Model the fold of this input.
Amino acid sequence: MKGFVLLLFWVLSAGAMAQYSAEDYQRADSVSRFNNMVYNTISESGWVPNTQVLWYALKTREGRTWYVAQADSATTRRAFDHERLGRLLQQTNEKKSFKPEALPLQNVHFSEGLDTLTFEMDGLKWLCDLNSYTLKATGKVNKRNNYGHWGRTTDELSQGPVQSPDSTWVAFIRDYNVFIRHRNTKEEHQLSFDGAKGDTYSSYLVWSPDSRFLATTKVRLHEKKYIRYIEAAPANQLQPKLHELEYLKPGDALPIKRPALFSVEGKKQVQIETRDFENQYNLSNPQWYSDSRGFTFEFNERGHQRYQVVEVNAETGAVRVLIDEKSATFIDYSGKRYRHDLNDGAEIIWASERDGWNHLYLYSTPKGKARAITSGQWVVRGVDHVDEKDRQLVFRAGGVQPDEDPYNVHYYRIGFDGKGLRHLTPAAGHHQASFSHNQRYLLDTWSTPETPPVSVLRDGLSGDTIMTLARADISALEKEGWKAPEVFVAKGRDGSTDIWGNIYRPTHFNPEKTYPIVEYIYAGPHSSFVQKSFSAHMGAFSSLAELGFIVVQIDGMGTSNRSKAFHDVCWKNLKDAGFPDRIAWIKAAAEKYAWMDTTRVGIYGASAGGQSAMGALLFHPDFYKAAVASSGCHDNRMDKIWWNEQWMGYPVGPHYEASSNVVNAHLLQGNLLLINGEIDDNVDPASTMQVASALIKAEKEFELLILPSVGHTLGGSYGERKRRDFFIRHLRNEEPPAWNQSQ
Done:
């Protein structure tokens, strides 16, 4: 009887737990103020063209002040008279207040002599003479071009006639064939005769620099595919709208391009053997050598296991493969491709993962040989500058420093021969740098999630510090109880590979309590995603933590910017999403920190993260108990072609089904909330509806939120509220605010 009374008391107590209020949510959102409590940081900067002068805006407690720094003399001064400029601005709009410490300048630029300042304000471009302090409007700010939906394929007949470099000829397409017309005599010559509707020569015609040859591609067109959906409640009309977007999915037919070459002198086509390049995902347009001896194109084989740089001889049409990149899994062309031609193509700097790490190679194209410029168990993250005269390059890399987070970016200089590696950003942390016009100096800003940013000017040859420009002040932030994210590292599934992630705690954190854990997941193989630089407020992370959760973010195997083997885990296996590493990491963190409760673990994400979030409940329900999946590509056959074939391969086979949340919906355990924008133009919204249909057929319980007239989204403000409500119910066993009563 006593046990029954205790049980009854526990049940009644649980039911009587204090309900969250709207004020609790408001307090959670109020931590966004932290972003405005970090001072003495550079908010924007730029190098004055053709000088060694850096301009920068310094955020202070009073507002924002612009400075210029002369790198070669290690001096700084105010860039202009802020009070005087404020008075000038006041004359342009008396209804506004222009305080010297809060001048609303955008897109700032300085002239070489530092005597002219241009900027944008109120939709206008302005020029200020800093000698006379006169101000004038110079025009309207141009609206950004709308290039249409990213899924639209190229209209191969959309370009007009193209004039030859010597102005003698004009090339154009007529009746799907290539023609040239003499500009003076108007004499026309037909150069091709086999073009036809659906198998046309492209109007993207490219002349050789000497005007003797003409190149293009002949394109076998594909059947265009579309996604269509209804916007049920458009803002500007009563009746629903039908949307239609061109959109290719894995396995769909693609246009086939074949390089084509024409001799203007001979008025004929020069034949090229193209059969080896027709099983293509893409073939680039011709790129001529400056001496007109030929052109190159790049061939990306369908399935992304072969990528070639190919040369075509202008006189004979002979084809020669200059670079032949192969992989047993995939070539990361979308994230790691780098090519820089030297000496009119006599040499090529090329990025490759052939030795298991992304590195740079120097090809001698006449000899067909390559030698490594960089090497080691670390990753080149990008090239910033190639100095052809001194045969050196400046590049970014991660993992070179043995005692640091391998995702931290540092900058280096090295010779084309692989010698003389120089570390330009030696301070520990994640770096972002910008270089003066000749790379002689650099502005280097570094930080970590736990340590605030420092900005210095450095010598671009040695990396030596010239002067410190800013060291962040976070004292106001610390007074508010701000908790820095903790960088945590643990071993992955193999017991040896380091897995890196961050832990986010609330400001009211109490180590004597236990907290449910929520993981934010994005495991897209195209990059890595865990925060590496300082930020006082991480948006939804910080606000969710403030409601009584420990929030974590982790880069598991299958994501980029580590070794090729680390990355290859994703190949034909997106359902893996690094979960064995993520689970091991969370367990290791909880073993160290008793306040992390691994019996209450939730997960959320959007897009590929939405697929993974739901996948957590399908494939790892023993660990994850609740998931919110937004805008998920729940079956990779339903999503965009380029992203999914890059990692899942071609042709579409049974492995696509194995990773499908739709096919595996019957495995659902735990609590699931699906969120989707009604007019998502990134991931076909039908993907979420199909997984919902599969769940219903399997008689599974779940929640579904469709956001009217909303595109690709994590959820927006309403979806964010629903996500918080969901985790409070299912991980804290408490009730969210009674929204309809509290408003």
Summary: The two ends are 44 Å apart (CA to CA). Residues 1-16 have pLDDT under 50 and may be disordered. The longest helix spans residues 716-731. Residues 557 and 566 are 5 Å apart (CA to CA).
